Amino acid sequence: MKFKDLLWPFGGSKKQSYPELEKAPQLTDYPTGKAVNDKIMAALTSGAGIGYPADYIERSTSPFIAEREAGFTQRELPALNAEYGARGLSRSTLAARDIGQAYGQKERDINTVMADAYLKNLNQTKSDQQYYNNLGYNFAGEEAGIGAKNAGITNQGRLGQLQLDQDYEQAKSDNINQAIGTALSFGSSMYGNINNASTNQALLDILKREQTTRSARPYTNAVVA
Predict the structure, then answer these.
(1) CB-side exposure of 11: number of CA atoms within 13 Å?
(2) Other CB atoms within 10 A of residue 217 CB
C-alpha cells in the first residue's frame, strides 16, 4: 500500500460523479414522428404516395375510359344501328361510314383522356416529389438540431466530470502535502536532533516521488466532444 493511500482517508472526500443530464428525445421517438419519417422514406426511396394511383392512366382500369367505352357500346352504337335499320340501310356503306366515324371519335376521346391523365400525373408526381423533398429536408434539420443539442449536453457532462475529477485530485494532493508536513513536524518533535535528519529525508523522498508521479500525469486532459 502506498503512503498516499494511508493518508487520504483521513483528510479527503469521496470521488464525485457528475449527475446525468436529460437529453431531448428525437422526433422518431414519438409514434407520430416515426410515422411521418416512415412516410417520407417510403416516398423518397420507392415512390410510395408519389403521383396518382397506377390505374389512373391505365386504359384497362381508368374509370374515365371505362365510361367512354360504355357510352359508345351501350348508347351510340345501338342508336346508329337503330337509325339505319329503320331506314333499311343497316348494311349500307353509309351506315358503316358513320359507325366507323363514331368509333374513331371514341378512340380519339380515349387518347385525349389518356394524354390528359398522363400530363396531370406527371405534374402531380413533380409536385409530390418536391413536397416530400422539402418535408424530408425540414425533418432532417429538426433531427440534426436535436442531435446538436444533445451533443452539447453530453459535452457539458464531460466537462462537469472533468472538473470534479480535477477538484478531487487537487484536494487529494493538498491532503497528502498537509499530512507530510504534519509528519515532518511530528518526526522532528519525537526523535530530536539525532534522528531528525533521517526522518525528514525519508518523508521528503516520499513527497518527491508523489510530485514526480503527478507531474507525469497532468490533471487536465483534452475533452473530445
Answers:
(1) 18
(2) 9
What burial letters (b/e) apply to 87-114, b meaning 16+ CB within 10 Å? eeeeeeeebeeeeeeeeeebeebbeebb
**Maximum separation of any 2 CA atoms in the chain, in Å:** 152
Q: pLDDT tens track of the chain, all 225 residues?
A: 444 444 444 444 567 787 777 777 888 888 888 888 999 998 888 888 898 887 777 777 778 888 989 999 999 999 999 988 888 888 888 889 999 999 999 999 999 988 888 899 999 999 999 999 999 999 989 888 888 888 888 888 888 888 878 877 777 777 777 767 766 665 555 555 445 556 556 666 666 666 566 555 544 444 444
Indicate the pTM of the whole model. 0.52
Cβ pair 126, 196 in contact under 8 A: no
Q: What nine digits make up the cell of 113? A: 383522356
Which residue in this structure is represented by grid cell 436529460?
A: 22
Domain boundaries defined on the chain: 29-215
CA torsion through residues 159, 164, 170, 172, sign: negative
State the Cα–Cα distance between residues 167 and 170, nearest whole angstrom: 5
